[in-house]
């Protein structure tokens, strides 16, 4: 499947608190931006299949959307659309499924829209209520923080990762987001700002955590051998990996990283025929600062235990050896869950076509990695390898 | 004093005991009380006392158990599954006879007597008596006592010989249907209780108070309402007083009596309207217990967990809780018969991830271990309070377990700290209780 599917259009909304837009309006706005971005233009009747990534539902969880929600939102009732819900990797898994449907030969052109409307209710009734789900006892009082924090706590204990190194991740994210008109948090911050922000859940302070966001993102995919109808600079999907892992903490094999990321990366790298050394730029799942540091290791960007040192060295800054999250990441760009994976593709699409403006990173191999990890108790990961070259 | 040496003495006897007292303290001096944690209740206290009995005497003591009698001051729920929870938590047979006695502070004594009567009549062979008092945080201390009643003979035992009582219509510290406590008239109670105690003591021992004191025949223990006045009325000093532990108090008094007196002794248990003098006989080595030394002027230790009742992700009426009972109440995992791998929780892991087998046998997981990782969370869903510590325990059998903490100083929580799993209450929306494991600091248990 390597390089059999191409991305020919990409677009997203601004991420933030969109009190004046509902789920359908956000989805439609991203869809329109993606369609308008196609260099040689594309008519809606070219779209043959759709995939709709959305995790928390709509109308404050009172509706469980189906593919029909997206089809109607984008003016295409009748289009075959599947709603994809697979935790935090929903957006990238929706792209994976779309790519598989195109690579299978059944469809030539696919549209993927990820959209999330979290702010229909106050934070105390929405974000925190996402902690009142799952096993009533084994997931008791879980929140997004408690399903990522224990790994960071153990990582600090085993490898000496420091609160300052965690804070550096947030500082980098904010600096990059300052250059991204679509980002939610664009104000620069310092390490002290992070350390002095209130404690949320050890070891994370408020600024170690991604915000609650509304937003949407969309991509247009097609068979690589017809991509030239739409653009002379497509971005190729070279590798895709999806992996699950042991779900409850008591059954996980280790607490300093996520097996699902390692396995998904292995699958994606093998399909693409690359190793971590070959990667120019990464958009990974920095829902919390500690998650980024740990993911450096899980993706093979550095040795186990060295993630804190990697960010401290500046290697993952915009001008560093291996820039990570030039968009500002989940921490500063925002995390409308279903949209997130798709938005990472949007950023890498612009980066590999060298149209990222002030955020443009230096390209050497023209290969990029996208990563998500999540789900309740964090049991699932998607990793993609994107390439500007079809070979 | 003669002790029964005939091996054929098969009268009902108490052959084993367990005691659990929470470690929290409020008040000072005479007002010092033992207080339960916000996530403990009569049911968890009862389970703790039964676990203490098993720890002292071995699991075999509750093998072949055919009866459980639970005594509480007020049942948490009427028609609730509490006795089934206890039975399941202890891993006892579903066919075991269970009864619940509720009422006043003498309900524990009544439960003990009914167990003795059942064994004497041959209706039961081995009965576990549990008297559990959650306390009121102000005057009545929290504790639970477990006693194993069977036909005596092999091990040194404690026997109840007789009970004498005197009752009167007196409103003391009574509680209404909502559980609100209405205090009585303290000096009136002292007067009435002392009067009844003196009369009953005279009737039982044939001695008035002065003679009793002179002849060193005084009660071995006195507990309940106006206990100090009752003790004085029987010729004893304050040293024999066991502070008010409600329903568990008289059973603590029996154990204290066994500790301080070998042979025949008397204990006195009072409520506002009734005085009971129990004549008991204990052999050397019989079950006995004395409260450990602590000063009522030591600094107070308030409970670390507040009572809270956040909506859980499922109501307790859901069939989920019956399916999950054994794994949540007693940490029962499933060991694969093919490869030995242990899966947990069994109700959600029907296929072995080691070898793909569907064939398992029950396996009790270890409850002791150390902290492998933890978090202290300050940003919780509504109803969960301000802060919660969650621990991933590295258990002694190689398994792991993730649970909140109970009674732990979260500021001192650290990877490597020794911890132990204990049954605690998870109260759901509307007050419906369900029970599962939480981590306590290992030094703190008992």
Number of helices of chain B: 9
Poorly predicted runs of chain A = none
Largest sheet report of chain A: 9 strands, mixed
> How many helical stretches of chain A?
11
Strand order, main sheet of chain B: write it out. Answer: 1-7-6-4-5
> How can the largest sheet of chain B be summarized?
5 strands, mixed
* Rounded Rg of chain A: 19 Å
**Total number of β-strand segments of chain A?**
11
Shape of chain A: globular
- Strand tally of chain B is 22
**What is the oligomeric state here?**
heterodimer
Share of residues in helices of chain B:
10-25%
SSE string of chain A, helices as H and strands as E? EHEHEHEHHHEEEEHEHHHHEE
Query: How are the strands of the largest sheet of chain A arranged?
Result: 3-2-4-7-1-8-11-10-9
Q: Which class do the helix and strand fractions of chain A yield? A: alpha/beta
**What distance lies between the first and last C-alpha atoms of chain A, to the nearest angstrom?**
12 Å
- The average pLDDT of chain A is 95
Stretches of chain B where pLDDT falls below 50 for ≥5 residues? none
Give the proportion of residues in helices of chain A.
25-40%
Structure in words:
The complex is a heterodimer of chains A (391) and B (446). Chain A is of the alpha/beta class. Chain A has helices at residues 23-37, 67-73, 90-103, 149-159, 163-177, 191-196, 259-272, 289-298, 307-312, 329-333, 337-352; strands spanning 5-12, 49-53, 81-84, 109-116, 199-201, 204-205, 215-223, 235-244, 281-283, 367-374, 380-387. In chain A, a hairpin with a 2-residue loop joins β5 and β6 (204-205). In chain B, the strands form six sheets. Chain B has a five-stranded mixed beta sheet with strand order 1-7-6-4-5, with helices on both faces. The chains are: A alpha/beta (391), B alpha+beta (446). The interface between A and B is large, with 36 and 39 residues.
